Automatic annotation (TrEMBL):
Belongs to the Vang family. The keyword Transmembrane helix applies. Residues 74-86 have a biased composition (Polar residues). GO terms for cellular component: plasma membrane. Residues 19-35 have a biased composition (Basic residues). The chain crosses the membrane at residues 111-133, 153-172, 184-204, 224-244. Keywords: Cell membrane, Membrane, Transmembrane, Transmembrane helix. It comes from the Eukaryota. Residues 36-45 have a biased composition (Basic and acidic residues). It is found in: Cell membrane. It is a multi-pass membrane protein. This is VANG1 protein.
Amino acid sequence: MSAAMDTESTYSGYSHYSGHSKKAHRQGRDRHKSPRSKDGSRSEKSVTIQTPPAEPLLGNDASRAEEGQDDNWGETTTAITGTSEHSISQEDIARISKDLEDSVGLDCKRYLGLTVAAVLGLLVFLTPIAFILLPQILWRDDLEPCGTVCEGLFISVAFKLLILLIGTWALFFRQPKADLPRVFVFRALLLVLIFLFVFSYWLFYGVRILDSKDTNYQGIVQYAVSLVDALLFIHYLAIVLLELRQLQPMFTVKVVRSTDGESRYYSLGHLSIQRAALVVLENYYRDFTVYNPALLTASKSRAAKHMAGLKVYNVDGNNASGQSRAMIAAAARRRDSSHNELYYEEADHERRVKKRRARLVVAVEEAFTHIKRLQAEEQQKAPGETMDPREAAQAIFPSMARALQKYLRTTRQQQYHSMESILQHLSFCITNNMTPKAFLERYLNPGPTLQYDKDRWFSKQWTLVSEEAVTSGLQDGTVFVLKCLDFSLVVNVKKIPFIKLSEEFIDPKSHKFVLRLQSETSV
């Protein structure tokens, strides 16, 4: 058994709420001790998203009974301090050191790739200029005079290099969005092609021009112009391979979150598995609702309650397998009544949510009405006596804090909204003259992950698991998994079917008809 080291950390909040229970710490340790993927395949890599640690304002134990919580958070603004105990084992230390080693390797690989690309790009732009200047420096007196055509080629080279510089900056000089486990194949092929191309031009230049000291300066300038033209064509090829090729949708991917089964569908073009995984993660943070593990504890606590109600007595010394069979049989007999308990639990929860939602809506509307009265009074004051939006938010927040706290605890969203974030959102709504409904939109319905701060995200590190090589392209039936610490995303790829459309001609005369009216009608 690994030894644990206990550390103490202090935190401060703006409420009188009870400290984290031992159950919350056990759940936090279990979440952080979840084993990483043991898949030893060569295609399993990780993309790390750096997120700073933080702590929620409200209690993080969503499964704790609501009556056992102190509801004085919304009635005071005094700051209190407390202590919380956390433990870390040797297994966690080894995993953290492994993550640090992986991050160092990823940083070295990223900077090495950027250095190689920068050196190669500098060589590409300096080569045409060197082709033109070297004859002027080495054998200037032997060169033939440069006429009007030669001088016009100077202008052509200058503008083409400017266009190439702008295009290269727009295509390649972008801030990287993620560290992929493998290199981008098309980009690496383009770098190799450019290197071979420039090397062959230098080789020909050294053999045919430098060694023989060619005196035809116009021909040398035309040789440099041909190099720049070829580089422009390579840049066009890079646009086709890196940008245009993936625009046409060819595959439909289904993304399913393993914990709650939430799913989305996306259309992708010709991409490798690692780049498709990157697109899936970008859409995940935008489209999927934020992952809330507190919503999954209800079923676990209900199952634990059922098993806790079973008692097995060992009278005649039976073994453990007999006790297990007895417990399974008793659980099967109680299965018929479990659905009634689930029904009443859900109905009671919905009733409490509706009740506290109504209280929250009324409290927020009254607070915003008070803001309007304050604004009307401040218009009559001197300019130096008016309150800024931050002060106005702090003035009306205590009137709605209690109702907001109870609603967030009931819906198990308290760990995503801190005191500071609520005040910032409230001051933002006051500044932009937003309605109470616009203020409550963030709290009444859980939003996507990007809506919350990064310190509220549970997905800090992603691991790509695939049976195929991550650099291979998508195929029909490809399945890969994106794992993080608490859940995983299962991605299933289906090819868009070939659609055949046929045309059917309709004669315009076929729509004509004759309406005959009888002069005599029955009465």
